[in-house]
Specification:
Layout (H helix, E strand, L loop, with lengths): L1 H23 L13 E14 L4 E13 L3 E10 L3 E4 L4 E15 L6 E16 L2 E19 L2 E10 L16 E13 L3
Antiparallel strand pairs: 1-2, 1-9, 2-3, 3-5, 4-5, 5-6, 6-7, 7-8, 8-9
């Protein structure tokens, strides 16, 4: 099922981008009014908390990519826990995870000093328990607010939910691995044009 789900997500993204490209070639459509020209390059470092059943886990990561039309972003990102996460406080059983994938974003009126942002990451990762591991699919939607501190530096806060829909580790079958998170973002880069 894991391999099939990965193929379906990739096919869906290809169809979406092809449809957007073909639609943009026509006159007088909503998509043709969008500015999808390259307008910036950004890299970001993040640190946050993932709220588990028994304790909060520190998750660090980052991403980099290209900005289009000042508002759209496409890039690649990766995150991982910085320490073991306890999932059974009585036996002190722990797990760790890391993941990465394609990141799509939209910043509504990103030229304003304070503006909302929305992101969606689709990727693969690995769950680790002592003496075992499992490859997983990760879906990571988030929303937040960003502040344009300087032309080349933006600071933000994001909240979201991290879905791990296909865990096959017997030790982790009975616990809820999908979890909400909150993170702080530090974006560095440059936007050009009007």
């Amino acid at each position: 099922m894991k391999a099939n789900l990965h193929k379906y997500v990739a096919a869906l993204l290809m169809i979406l981008f092809t449809a957007l490209y073909l639609t943009a070639q026509r006159d007088e459509t909503l998509v043709s009014k969008l500015d999808l020209s390259l307008s910036g390059v950004w890299g970001c470092s993040t640190v946050g908390l993932s709220f588990t059943e028994y304790e909060s886990a520190v998750v660090a990561g980052g991403y980099g990519g290209l900005e289009f039309g000042k508002d759209f972003f496409i890039g690649w990102g990766g995150w991982s826990t910085t320490e073991d996460v306890t999932y059974d406080p009585f036996s002190l059983r722990t797990y760790r995870f890391n993941y990465g994938g394609i990141l799509l974003g939209y910043g509504l009126s990103s030229w304003k000093v304070v503006h909302p942002q929305f992101f969606l990451l689709l990727g693969r990762g690995t769950l680790y328990v002592p003496d075992d591991r499992d490859r997983i699919l990760v879906v990571h939607p988030s929303a937040g607010v960003e502040v344009n501190v300087l032309r080349w530096f933006r600071w933000g806060l994001q909240v979201g939910y991290r879905f791990f829909p296909d865990n096959d580790l017997p030790a982790l079958q009975s616990i809820p691995l999908s979890q909400p998170f909150a993170e702080m973002t530090f974006r560095f880069g440059w936007s050009w044009g009007e």
